User: Fold Catalase-related peroxidase from Alishewanella maricola.
Amino acid sequence: MRAYFMVAALVGSVSAAFLLAANLGTGNALSAQDFVDLQQGSTAHAGFRRAHAKGFCVAGDFISSGALAPFSSAAVLQAGRYPFIGRFSIAGNNPLAPDLKAPVRSFAITLLPETAQQWRIAMNTPPVLAVGTPEKFYLQLQAIQNNSVPQFFAEHPESQAFVKWRSTYQASSSFASERYHSINAFYLQKAAGQQQAVKWAAVPMLTSTISSELDETDADALQKEFFARLNAGMVSFDWQFTLGTDADDENNATVLWPDSNVQISAGTLQIHQATEQLDGNCNALNFDPLVLPRGVAPTADPILRARAAAYAESHRRRAREVLVQSVVGDQHE
Ligand code: HEM
Assistant:
């Protein structure tokens, strides 16, 4: 099986577009469009993300400890306070899905230092992926839609770590008490020729108890819990980095790095504002994992390139739909 990527465009560090072409062994080329067609399903929800469609916006500050400054020249890893825009979401293409029922919860952030060196991050609750290539990820998405996931896992032994995690994971009653993982590895870079492979996680620092009872019949139960919790006080996460060693393969997101690896806290992500997604400034953002500041670089993990391509395609579709809706709306006023 052969996969290749052509960089179609890379404009500054703000927008990256990749054309993904992979041979699935069927003679058909797999593109970002194919990914997004599959993810959106037969009836697309116009104007919404084709994956992680349901969510809400948050804003806050990252209080950087500076502990990672010896590894990276990234502005936000130098000690200080840096604003961020974020988004909590659930996996899936339905913006009206009941949030308590989703198997995967997510936290995305865009760090905004004064230098315009944005850092966009999208994290999920599992620490690993079931499969390590875009082609197999596509087949996994098909298996989910065909209700043949057990058979898919049986045919893909590399899914072992994911299956083990899933068997012990218990969803919590709050977005604020989940642990969110980068899953893919990246490099921290300080000087030319010097780099350190890392993965990271946002680890909850609960400072208040649940502020409202969860109504399990409410499709927005988790969102309401979060808004109520925030009204009662700030929500914070410790941003923890795990350093890879020579024994770890940074290009294979199916493997869990050992607990014995060095962990360093980069600081605290403090959330002080939450907004409905249609009113919030996270909605128009694409949390492309390849929008990285100087001092952080992608590994060769092929999933990262596929993600950037698919996020761009999903963003292109929903941005166009929002524009068309607003033009049609104006004509009727
Ligand atoms: C080949 C694998 C993947 C594909 C094709 C894919 C595809 C997508 C797409 C199309 C979107 C919507 C983008 C938008 O319209 O802005 C999205 C959102 C998202 N993805 Fe993935 N994804 C992949 C892997 C991952 C992984 C490994 C993670 C976690 C580390 C992840 C986390 C997220 C999150 C958190 C969002 C929502 C971001 C937001 O709030 O806007 N995805 N994904």
